[in-house]
């Protein structure tokens, strides 16, 4: 298969290079392809007109045909692939409106490179990365390039390659002035890429960002689907225990009308206990299984959250008997310490186990919800601390006053002893006189 001699150099006039690429595309596409013959009349319009002036080539008409046929480049030999795409991108750059043509090129690059199954992804990423970096920072075409890059990384499970650059994502979106639909598209694909790359927490973070773009249409079918997806992800995550990020969303609140069972399940994990979850399962048949949820994961999470609730409620004695934990979690007494240790590892509680007393001494606990009750508790603790500090201040003042009195007494002593010296000197003088 003949190559293109000037692809890597990208030298020559638009007309010459366009004809060259068209001929190459015809070669790749095989018999019946006539891209070169179709653009020849369009290129001929640049010949001299009367009066010596030249017409301007209708570059957009030429590029439409070239870009449409360029999906065939994915079958080009590996050694020619990058040069061929570079030439196409170079030609697109000469259009008055290059943004029209780059998105389809990006889509082509996300498709499999049939001529190089092993190295094709790396080549495509190299082309897209070069294209992204050559565009102006505020050029919204960068958005389409980034979508293609993330799509490739999602397909290959290489999310970690783009993670360092995502710290700039908010600034990019602001520069590109993306609308909510475009932001949502990007967040969703980032969520999928993070999931395939083994980063469930980051996947959930971007999924939540996607849900937030729909709050103005919280009751729409799209908002419902995304919200349920986010809810399922949060419930199944072994590291996610705070559900207030979901309950604060209008689209999640809308589930109370459209999906009452899902809403009820969410409320259980917000502030209920393992016993309540058992009642839910008894009352809703095979709902958990039918929805593809892992019952073991839900049980474990709810037991840990129940233990956190017990710790938060132990505000007076700050201790929880093993027997109380065993009953609340519905576990054998011998497994209590294991569950407490797991709860500590999850960061829900801090404390110390006493095997001798068979109790858990709570040092710190996580409140699953934070409302009026918790504010009252904080106010009570602050009042206690204020009273304690007042008492400390009284003691400090008393000690300070006592210290001052002692110092004054020490200073007064030498002065009083020194007051007799003039008398002694007077008597001495008198004796000398006598």
SSE string, helix = H, strand = E? HHHHHHHHHHHHHHHHHHEHHEEHH
Structural class: mainly alpha
Rg from C-alpha positions?
38 Å
Number of strands: 3
Ranges with pLDDT <50 over ≥5 residues?
Answer: 1-9, 47-54, 424-434
* Biggest sheet character: 3 strands, antiparallel
Strand content: under 5%
Shape: elongated
Number of helices: 22
What does the secondary structure layout of this molecule look like, with pairings?
Layout: H1 14-29, H2 35-44, H3 59-69, H4 78-92, H5 102-110, H6 120-134, H7 141-156, H8 169-176, H9 180-196, H10 200-212, H11 221-236, H12 244-247, H13 250-253, H14 255-258, H15 260-271, H16 274-283, H17 287-290, H18 295-313, E1 319-321, H19 322-329, H20 336-345, E2 349-354, E3 359-365, H21 372-418, H22 421-433
Antiparallel strand pairs: 1-3, 2-3
GO biological process, one term: formation of cytoplasmic translation initiation complex
Domain PCI: 199-367
Family: Belongs to the CSN7/EIF3M family. CSN7 subfamily. Belongs to the eIF-3 subunit M family.
How would you characterize this protein structure?
- This protein has helices at 14-29, 35-44, 59-69, 78-92, 102-110, 120-134, 141-156, 169-176, 180-196, 200-212, 221-236, 244-247, 250-253, 255-258, 260-271, 274-283, 287-290, 295-313, 322-329, 336-345, 372-418, 421-433; strands at 319-321, 349-354, 359-365.
- A three-stranded antiparallel β-sheet has the order 1-3-2.
- It contains 22 helices and three strands.
- The longest helix is centred in the last third of the chain and has 47 residues, at 372-418.
- With 434 residues, it is mainly alpha-helical.
- It is 65% helix and 4% strand.
- Among the domains are: 1-44 and 57-158 and 181-205; 309-365, Arc Repressor Mutant, subunit A.
- The chain is elongated.
- Component of the eukaryotic translation initiation factor 3 (eIF-3) complex.
């Amino acid at each position: 298969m003949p190559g293109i001699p000037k692809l890597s150099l990208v030298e020559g006039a638009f007309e010459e290079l366009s004809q060259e690429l068209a001929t190459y595309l015809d070669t790749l596409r095989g018999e019946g392809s006539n891209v070169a013959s179709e653009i020849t009349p369009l290129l001929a319009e640049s010949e001299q007109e009367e009066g010596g002036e030249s017409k301007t080539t209708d570059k957009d008409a030429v590029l439409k045909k070239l870009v449409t046929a360029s999906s065939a480049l994915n079958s080009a030999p590996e050694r020619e692939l990058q040069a061929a795409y570079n030439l196409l991108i170079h030609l697109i750059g000469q259009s008055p409106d290059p943004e029209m043509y780059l998105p389809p090129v990006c889509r082509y690059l996300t498709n499999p490179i049939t001529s190089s199954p092993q190295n094709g992804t790396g080549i495509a990423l190299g082309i897209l990365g070069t294209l992204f970096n050559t565009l102006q920072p505020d050029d919204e075409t960068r958005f389409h390039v980034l979508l293609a890059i993330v799509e490739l990384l999602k397909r290959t499970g290489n999310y970690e390659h783009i993670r360092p650059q995502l710290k700039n994502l908010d600034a990019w979106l602001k520069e590109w002035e993306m609308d909510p639909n475009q932001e949502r598209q990007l967040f969703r694909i980032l969520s999928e890429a993070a999931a395939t790359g083994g980063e469930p927490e980051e996947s959930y973070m971007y999924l939540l960002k996607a849900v937030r773009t729909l709050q103005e249409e919280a009751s729409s079918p799209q908002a419902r689907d995304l919200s349920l997806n986010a809810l399922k992800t949060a419930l199944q995550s072994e590291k996610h225990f705070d559900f207030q990020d979901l309950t604060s969303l209008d689209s999640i609140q809308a589930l109370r009308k459209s999906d009452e069972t899902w809403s009820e399940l969410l409320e259980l994990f917000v502030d209920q206990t393992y016993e309540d979850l058992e009642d839910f399962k008894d009352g809703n048949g095979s709902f958990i299984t039918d929805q593809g949820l892992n019952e073991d994961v839900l049980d474990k999470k709810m037991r840990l959250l129940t233990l956190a609730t017990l710790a938060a409620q132990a505000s007076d004695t700050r201790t929880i008997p093993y027997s109380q934990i065993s009953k609340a979690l519905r576990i054998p007494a011998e497994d209590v310490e294991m569950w407490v240790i797991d709860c500590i590892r999850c960061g829900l509680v801090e404390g110390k186990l006493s095997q001798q007393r068979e109790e858990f001494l709570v040092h710190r606990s996580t409140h699953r919800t934070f409302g009026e009750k918790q504010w009252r508790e904080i106010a009570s603790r602050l009042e206690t601390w204020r009273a304690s500090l007042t008492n400390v201040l009284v003691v400090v003042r008393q000690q300070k006053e006592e210290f001052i009195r002692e110092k004054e007494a020490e200073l007064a002593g030498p002065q009083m002893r020194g007051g007799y010296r003039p008398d002694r000197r007077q008597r001495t003088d008198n004796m000398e006189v006598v």
